[in-house]
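Narrative summary of target 7.
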Amino acid sequence: MQRRLTLQLLATSAIPASLAAHAHHGWSSFDQERPIYLEGKATRVKWANPHAELVLDVSGGIKLPADLASRSVPAQSAPVDAPALLKKAVLPTRKDRTWEIELAPLTRMEAWKVPEIKNGQSLALLGFTFKDEKGAAIVRVEFLWLDGKAYALRSSPA
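Modeled conformation, tokenized:
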């Protein structure tokens, strides 16, 4: 009886872990040929691993900044062609009022000295969503603009 109860507990405790692993996306899930630009206010911020995340409320509208292609972003250790990504940036075609935003793991956020984002805080980002914008409104962030400062989140600072 005790053994069966132990096995049942082990089996049911593995379910949430498997669901969490299924929900986490690697870079390969995202269309890295089509960077999208979003700006809005942070809501439901989760500052925890496997990566910081938040919901971005874009209901105030989004415009592609005229200076985006010429913005300076910091160098990072990954081989990312920042000027090319900034030039290719587009607005999303879908009209969702909120987007789920995946930032970097906390160790990388700390390496970049990104301050903890608070609910209601304004921010802008350039990142990637799924091919043809299919599926959930999720963006994996490449560049983050927060309080007048730019952060590159793909890898560690160069």
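Helices lie at 2-23, 82-88, 106-111.
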